Amino acid sequence: MTNTANIFLPTVPRTPAAKATQPFPWVGLITLAAAVFLSVTSEMLPTGLLPEMSESLNVTESQIGLLVSWFAFTVVVTSAPVAILTRRFPRHGLIIIVLVIFALSSVLTAIAPTYELVVAARVLGGVAHGLFWSVVGAYAAHLVPKAQIGRAVSITVAGGTLAFVFGVPLGTAAGHLLGWRLSFVALGVLMLIGAALVWKFLPPVARHSTSTSTTDAAASAPQGGRRDATIPAVVLICFITGITMVGHYSFYTYIAPFLLDGLGVAASQLAPLLFAYGVAGAIGLLLVGTVFGPRPTLGLVLGLAASAVSVTLLALFSATLPVALAAFVLWGMAFGTLPPLMQTRMLHAASPEIRDTASAFYTTAFNAGIGGGALLGAVLIETVGLEFVPLVYVGLLVVALTLVVVTDLVGSRRS
């Protein structure tokens, strides 16, 4: 049935009883996942088109990699302020507006004649991206009871995983065949289609979650002007997320030159390898939905450890192609578990009253990691060489893993 609700009018909150009795919102969550797919594809598409964009715009590959940094740092700077400015707007309408802005950013990127104008178009997309994730981060939690948040988040985040499975590899293949500019034009058209699907199929929700009872909400709310008791846990999760993403994107942003030059694979194999990496990430996401969703801490520990081991093998055995490629696929599966587990843990930790705000700060931490990682990778490439980047990544993974284990032990003792 077509959604004819006015997207620019406030929505009546869903009651806890209504959520408990309604069927699981598969259509709405899949539509949300499609929007996430387009958003992540837009953000990461330059990573697969580094050589083509570098040659066309007459800049270095490191400068093209920094397009990811420009995008991500824009999210960092604008996410929280824009979320505050739009706090009274309906969440459903904001997602539609953001997808239209994404489409405009993609088209402007495609027609930009200079590197500087490409940067400007990416900054526009970064503003939209920050607002998008401040809304989407908690949208799934608004649709389901707390007990189903892990499952709902896994479905939503699957859109991001599928962006690595299909979006980036297909965009890369299209860029090789038709030119990188047409890839961005096609992405802009898909953004407009996505906006129409969101309008039609995604159920509107109120801004604040009402998935807990009035008594529970009152118990978790600040009393006497005191701050929300769940803020420290949210801050810690955001910090661990930022560290992990800095390490990951210091390496993944420059994965195309690493595969081509470090492993010696042919250019024609780049898109299939990125596809294999994405499929492995989808398997990791499936593990979250079926095994680790109710146990996010265990999943985080295993995902971080497996990522560290696989990237170490990839760095040490770059001259042995079968071992390196197996490690590359294992890395994809391990990392595929991390974003949904971190987001699930954050939503479990945050009280219902601060979920939207917590999601905005989680988005800020995530994208600070993406932008900082791309920048760190560029600096490392120019100073010590690409072969040292995965080792730095492993070091940051060890730091994140240590924080997860130590804080979990401290929390267990306090309990």
Summarize the structure.
The protein is mainly α. The protein is built from 16 helices and no strands.
What is the number of E strands? 0
Instruction: Flag low-confidence runs.
Output: 1-18, 208-225
Structural category: mainly alpha
* Pattern of helices and strands: HHHHHHHHHHHHHHHH
Strand content: under 5%
Q: Please state the CA-atom Rg, rounded to the nearest Å.
A: 21 Å
Which architecture of the largest domain would the CATH scheme give at its second level?
Up-down Bundle
Share of helix, binned: over 70%
Distinct helical segment count: 16
Instruction: Kindly identify the CATH topology of the largest domain.
Output: Growth Hormone, Chain: A
* Overall shape: globular
**How far is the first residue's CA from the last residue's CA?**
48 Å
Average of pLDDT: 81
What would you say this structure looks like, in words?
This protein folds into two domains: 184 residues, Growth Hormone, Chain: A (Up-down Bundle), CATH 1.20.1250.20; 187 residues, Up-down Bundle (Growth Hormone, Chain: A), CATH 1.20.1250. It contains 16 helices and no strands. The protein is an all-alpha fold and 415 residues long. The N terminus is likely disordered. Pfam families: MFS_1 (PF07690). It is a multi-pass membrane protein. Keywords: Cell membrane, Membrane, Transmembrane, Transmembrane helix. Its main location: membrane.
